[in-house]
């Protein structure tokens, strides 16, 4: 199953803020073998991500998620995004039937955010209606990103732009990062730029939904360009040990009807080398 099973982009901009949720603050879900646990957030599910698909089966049906453990002694974490909330859960190893959670229901009215701030129900409903409209416009318009041949060397951090979903005024970009080095690496929210090509060796239209390798990107002789505000961002596991990988999403302004644009996602540097990904969206 793909990590990004379904996407919808909310119509309300959300500022990126530094937030941390610890293991002890995360609600736990108890499962048992050969049984489903159902999560019902009470509103449409925009996106979900599960860290360990080999130990747990996760299926979406309407606005509900069905979780089934596939083996014992395995735990993982689950992220759920709805038009109004981000929900985080720790799924515990499969245990006794008498202790399992068969139904986890989270009503959207007068709910509490992950940081404990109660959201006014009127504001929630307003945002929900706007986001539902955006979802109707954006659902099923997800596009996979093709990739130029990349020379991957041991000791590098590999960045892959996986998918984009377009709405009327936003782009939601899913990326993955794999640590092929021998050192730990921390994934931070990337800075996004719109480089300005000084030459056009290849039409951007022909490269739409395409991640460029360094050789292709250099042919445009692009200047840095101007920064693009990141509206929202999330990463499943920001701290990567050698050999580990993670996935994340960012939302930026952009229109599904706009001409193709060259973007640069800058994840900082690693071992004195800039860690960037160039993509035409």
Task: Output the keywords.
five-stranded antiparallel sheet, Immunoglobulin-like, 2 domains, six-stranded mixed sheet, 281 residues, mainly beta
C-alpha Rg (nearest Å): 20 Å
Oligomer: single chain
Please, how many helices? 2
Mean pLDDT: 80
- The first-level CATH class name of the largest domain: Mainly Beta
Helix content: under 10%
Distance N terminus to C terminus? 24 Å
Bulk shape = elongated
What is the CATH architecture term of the largest domain? Answer: Sandwich
How many beta-strand elements? 21
Uncertain parts: 1-18, 110-123, 130-140
Question: What name does the CATH topology of the largest domain carry?
Answer: Immunoglobulin-like
Q: Assess the beta-strand content as a share of residues.
A: 35-45%
Order the strands across the largest sheet as they lie in space. Answer: 10-15-21-20-14-16
Outline the biggest β-sheet: 6 strands, mixed
- Name the helix and strand elements from N-terminus to C-terminus, one letter apiece: EEEEEEEEHEEEEEEEHEEEEEE
């Amino acid at each position: 199953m793909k990590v990004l099973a379904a996407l919808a982009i909310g119509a309300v901009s959300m500022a990126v803020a530094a937030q941390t949720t610890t293991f002890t603050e995360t609600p736990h879900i108890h499962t048992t073998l050969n049984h489903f646990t159902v999560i019902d957030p009470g509103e449409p599910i925009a996106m979900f991500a599960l860290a360990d698909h080999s130990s747990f089966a996760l299926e979406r049906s309407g606005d509900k998620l069905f979780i089934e453990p596939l083996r014992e002694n395995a735990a993982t974490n689950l992220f759920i995004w709805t038009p109004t909330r981000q929900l985080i859960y720790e799924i515990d190893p499969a245990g006794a039937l008498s202790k399992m959670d068969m139904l986890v229901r989270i009503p959207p009215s007068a709910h509490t955010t992950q940081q404990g701030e109660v959201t006014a129900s009127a504001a929630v409903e307003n945002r929900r209606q706007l986001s539902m409209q955006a979802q109707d416009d954006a659902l099923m318009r997800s596009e996979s990103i093709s990739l130029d041949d990349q020379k991957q060397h041991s000791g590098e951090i590999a960045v892959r732009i996986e998918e984009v979903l377009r709405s009327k005024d936003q782009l939601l970009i899913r990326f993955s990062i794999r640590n092929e080095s021998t050192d730990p690496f921390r994934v931070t929210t990337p800075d996004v730029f719109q480089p300005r090509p000084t030459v056009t060796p290849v039409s951007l239209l022909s490269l739409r939904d395409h991640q460029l390798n360094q050789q292709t990107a250099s042919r445009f002789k692009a200047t840095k360009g101007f920064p693009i505000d990141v509206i929202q961002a999330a990463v499943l596991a920001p701290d990567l040990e050698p050999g580990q990988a993670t996935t994340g999403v960012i939302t930026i302004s952009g229109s599904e009807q706009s001409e193709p644009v060259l973007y640069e996602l800058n994840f900082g540097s690693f071992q004195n080398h800039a860690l960037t990904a160039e993509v035409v969206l």
